[in-house]
């Protein structure tokens, strides 16, 4: 998210001002701003200046700088501050945990030119003793900081990369002489983490395209610049490749650079068996004559295959299915009829039930479930029985107003699964709800047996309709807790509980492989956004992409049903348990 990038810039500015012995109040203002921006739950790139100014510690000036950072990836104040201190020193300030005074002392002693040099000095214990106040512990901290900074240049969660790529595409379309322009690579396949952005273009003036691309203000570093291919580093350490290809090769190149590599290799082998050479330039017959390559479909046509959607090009059975004519009809965003997981300002969301309903209607959906947290989640102002009953009343009132619009607000809750296997609210109240999402928010470090036991116990409750974010992972932040997925899935099947694909970009939980397994087993899957602000409804696209990567069709997805069918499906277990008792 851009928040962490903005926070990093502010904290570097603070460090540089401090070194320049500037007004300590300004230094502190930047430090504080870095902290609140980092911790802010909303994406600052989605906020207006007025909204930014409402953040404590952000005044008019800092709000303008945030907008500048969102738009250009940097701000004037940062660039100017950097000019005032030596480059080696400003590099040292980017190492997390290395304070400005220590950085200056190290710089003055060693005149370091790059981070690798600092790493070597710390590893060889040459800082200790040479620079006052540096002890062995400080050296260890520096090494840890360097490691952290490196992690920032590794694979990135798709939610952090896609908005950057979309922005880049828009800018290139507006400012570079391009004809066709497409995203390829893992991003087009919607992999959950992205190594780098791959963009393909056609143009009458490839050189000019390269000039524009490498000269964009948000480009932090140009790694390579050629006549038809360039590589740059964008804010947040995101790397992007741009290639300009011949129009007659665009389709073949798009197929090649979309990958995956494994999928490409299969296509090339199949081509060879037919006496065809298939590469990024096109399709060539035995005589070496080009027979196609302008359109991506040319490649599949040459092999007698239907179009294979990018999301499943992983050589995990898609070629065989295509040959047999049994490719899945993957679920599309348009198939989704509503969202079964959203938070209002009664718990930790930012909007009212009405505002959420209006936003869901605008998406073209016919229902949305209000699922605030239950009381156990104190930090999220979780609802107790009394406040939940009050919310139910409000929803009833809103629904009677919305009746004519054939839109329904579903009554729900995100009930906490406690560490002792019980649910946070009694069945009497759960039974009054349409949607009960059960989820784990505590005890992440418990054993696999314990956590699996908690989840399966929750699913055995007749009123729990859905298991939410089943593994609790936060991409790049927190590992999944230990859980026996196979047992969770078989319990879901036995009890008739739906499993969620949580679309929040940091979660994407279930992931594609587990979701594919769930679909194969015939478990109903709910693709939910877990919206806390209205813009989060846009995250549905990520969840749908995970479902597509999991080979799921509309029939696998509970929230492609209309509201009546949906409730019938999710309440089947209630009827069964009623009959039993
Ligand atoms: P990433 O960037 O690690 O998330 O994953 P990709 O799939 O975007 O990989 P990348 O950027 O290295 O290359 C883009 C595509 O180019 C890749 O999906 C397939 C194609 N490609 C790259 N190297 C090779 C190769 O050695 N052989 C074949 N057949 N295709 C390749
Ligand atoms: Ca890539
Ligand atoms: Ca690449
Ligand atoms: Zn939630």
Please, could you describe this protein's structure?
It is a single chain. By secondary structure, the protein is an alpha/beta fold. It has four domains: 3-151, DNA polymerase, domain 1 (Orthogonal Bundle), CATH 1.10.150.110; 156-244, 2-Layer Sandwich (Beta Polymerase, domain 2), CATH 3.30.460.10; 249-324, 2-Layer Sandwich (Beta Polymerase, domain 3); 333-580, Alpha-Beta Barrel (TIM Barrel). Helix content is 45%, strand content 13%. The protein contains 25 helices and 17 strands. The strands form four sheets. A seven-stranded parallel β-sheet has the order 11-12-13-14-15-16-17. Strand 15, helix 21 and strand 16 form a beta-alpha-beta unit. Helix 1 (2-19) packs antiparallel against helix 2. The radius of gyration is 27 Å and the shape is globular. The two termini are 50 Å apart. 46% of the residues are buried. The model has no long low-confidence stretch (mean pLDDT 93). Residues 185-186, 195-196, 198 line the site of one calcium ion. 2'-deoxyguanosine-5'-triphosphate binds next to helix 11, helix 13 and helix 14.
Number of helical stretches of at least 4 residues? 25
Bound molecules: 2'-deoxyguanosine-5'-triphosphate, calcium ion, zinc ion
Number of separate structural domains: 4
The level 1 CATH classification of the largest domain is: Alpha Beta
Beginning-to-end CA distance, first to last residue: 50 Å
Shape: globular
- CATH homologous superfamily title of the largest domain: Metal-dependent hydrolases
Secondary-structure class: alpha/beta
Q: DSSP strand (E) fraction? A: 5-15%
Known CATH architecture of the largest domain: Alpha-Beta Barrel
- C-alpha Rg (nearest Å): 27 Å
CATH structural fold name of the largest domain:
TIM Barrel
Number of beta strands: 17
Which residues form runs of ≥5 with pLDDT under 50? none
Overall average residue pLDDT:
93
Widest sheet: strand ordering: 11-12-13-14-15-16-17
Helix content: 40-55%
Largest sheet: 7 strands, parallel
